[in-house]
Structures are given as C-alpha cells and as structure tokens.
TrEMBL record:
Protein source organism: Nostoc cf. commune SO-36
Location(s) in or outside the cell: Cell envelope
Occurrences of domain Solute-binding protein family 3/N-terminal (ranges): 37-256
The name this protein goes by in its record: Basic amino acid ABC transporter substrate-binding protein
Limits of the Ionotropic glutamate receptor C-terminal domain: 37-255
Gene3D superfamilies for the chain: Periplasmic binding protein-like II
Keywords from the UniProt entry: Signal
SUPFAM superfamilies named in the record: Periplasmic binding protein-like II (SSF53850)
Protein family (similarity comment): Belongs to the bacterial solute-binding protein 3 family.
Amino acid sequence: MKLINFKWEQLILSLGFLLLIIGCQSLYPTINPDAKSLKVATDPTFVPFEFQKADGKLEGFDIDLMNAIAKVAGFAVQFESLPFDGMISTLQAKRVDAAISGITITAERRKTIAFSRPYFKAGLAIAVREDNQNIKDFNSLKGKKIAVQIGSTGADFAKTIPNAKISTFNSGPEFFQDLLNGNVDAVVSDAFATLYAIKNGKLQGIRVVADLLTEEYYGIATPKDSPHLDEINRGIATLLSNGTYKQIYQKWFNAEPPQLPDS
Ligand code: ARG
C-alpha cells in the first residue's frame, strides 16, 4: 500500500516538474531580456495564408512560416491584425517590426518599405460567377465591372483594363460577396487564395477563368533599414534548405513547392 502511494506522489511530482518546464519555456522570451519579440502585422482575411479560426486563433501558411522563421532565428512573434490597406503606412511609421500577409514584392512598394527574399511564388486570377460564359481572359474584361481589394496588386492590375469600372473592398470575403450578389462581373485577386477557397467550398458559385495572369512573389515586409531583415532572410534560407519550407507548403497546398529566386 505504501509503495503504491509513493508511486502516485512521484508521478504527481514529475508532472509538476514537467508543467514547470513547459511554463518556463513559454515565458522564456518575456523573462529573458536578450530574447527579442517582433511585432508582426497581418490581415487575417486571406485563406489559406492568414485567417482566423472560430476561437480567434490565427492560422495559415504565412503564420506557420513566420513562426518557423522565429524559431530558427531565436525570436518570439507577436501577431497584430491590421487591414491590408494600412499595412505599408504602419510599416513606414515603424509601428510594427514586420508584416506577413501575402504581400507581393513590387518596385513601387520597395520605394517606401523593405522586403525579405521571396518566400512564395504567386500570381493573379480572374474569377467570375459560375454561369458567366463571356469572360474568359484579360481582353474580355474590357468595360466590365470588376471588384478588387483596396491597395492590392489586383487593384493595380484592374486599373490597366480599358474602361473597366472598379469597385474596391477591404477584404476577400467582401469582394467575392459582391460578385455573388451580381453587382460586378469579375474579381481580380491572388490566384492561390481564390483557388484554395473554391476548392474548400468557401466560394460556392464562383469559378476561376484565368489564373496566374502575372508572376508575383510574396515577401515579408519590414520598415526600411530594419535591423531584423537579415535574420528573417537567414531564417527563410534555413527553412528552404532543411525541408521545413517544403513541409509547410505541402501542408497547405498538397503540392511540391516551386523554385524560388534568391532575391
Ligand atoms: N498579393 C496581393 C498584394 O500584395 C494581395 C495580398 C492580400 N493579403 C491579405 N492578407 N489580404 O497586393
């Protein structure tokens, strides 16, 4: 009898120790003054790159990637939800250390903020209601009503379509809803996000007629002259070479990742 009691105590004691160790580990960045914590902005309305689960927890390819970079680089991440449209000015004002949000690297954006090396090969797509038979490509968008996300590369692209009437929205769910309601003829937005949402039954009644109209690369954005850009770049390089990038890519896209340029 005594022996059994003793064993129980031992078990409880070791469980206690285990919890203590786990507790200390999660507290590590806050109790160790050398461990940094980076504030990272994201607009979680972009399945499957960043979105919120019912319990409010952030999930997605970008979230996994950022957490993995932080792990290899040795910093903690504190995500902050921000509308996509305000992200660049927030970075410029240095109110956050970085942003990950499926942000396409463009020459225009490079004038005001910095980007990490490319971490995702992307491109734009045209989406229409399933019953629409007359929009097939860029040329058939002329003079049509098009919905886009404010401040996105899709919005820039739509501006190049002759006589198009463009409506702008804050987030993906809104411009697709406008398309379903029949207010616009097409949506121009990121191909991977759109195709993923359709495949997962989140955009019923919508189909993609042309994808990868452009070649774009996503990068992690930081303020110019950020002291963190180097470690972020080194982190991406490590994940590319040690197989973690491939694992994350396969988890979300069920496919082999394509080659990425170094810069
Ligand atoms: N790739 C596009 C851009 O950079 C759209 C990204 C939208 N991302 C988001 N989290 N809403 O303009």
